[in-house]
Amino acid sequence: MIGKGAYEVKPVTLAEVLKILEKRQGTGGEFGFEQQTALDYVRKFAHLKLSDAQEMAKELLEAAELKEEIAVKIVDILPNRQQLMLILAKDKAELPEKKIDAILEIVERYRKKAKKVETKRDETKEEEQQVPP
Fold first, then answer.
1. pLDDT tens string 70-114
2. Residue 11, CB half-sphere, CA atoms under 13 Å: how many?
3. Nearest CA to 93 among 70, 122, 126?
């Protein structure tokens, strides 16, 4: 059963999930389908290193006084303004414009440290354009 024996439930960033899964994988044995799928997903979508993700979540909690769940979502997604507004609307969090701007400033600072995922998409678009009809 999932969650059996769990003492506490706490939201974690994708970077933390990656660390946990890689640690478990290193202890021996093969992963089941679900764990391997989760590991593949996290490797693909975890944009920040663990230390950066934890630091960013801490900054978001302090600067904008967000709930931990919202801060973790923001760390994982690194949203633009529209995406941030959707996250806040879904969680019914209303923040003044100053705090939204502060969040976006933090996101932009860490986005520069993030792994470049868009380059792969850009390369495939260039290849499609180069193929003559």
1. 999 999 999 999 999 999 998 887 888 999 999 999 999 999 988
2. 14
3. 70
Give the residue carrying structure tokens 């933390």: 16
Q: Amino acid letter at 71?
A: A
Q: Give dist(CA 44, CA 26) in Å, integer.
A: 19
For residue range 15-70, what is the model confidence (pLDDT) as tens digits? 999 999 999 887 877 888 998 999 999 999 999 999 999 999 999 999 888 889 99
- Which residue type is seen at 26? G
pTM greater than the 0.70 cutoff: yes
Q: Which residue has the tokens 């044995």?
A: 29
The torsion angle over the Cα atoms of residues 96, 106, 115 and 84, rounded to 10 degrees, is 0
Cα–Cα distance measured from residue 75 to residue 33, given in angstroms and rounded to the nearest whole number? 27
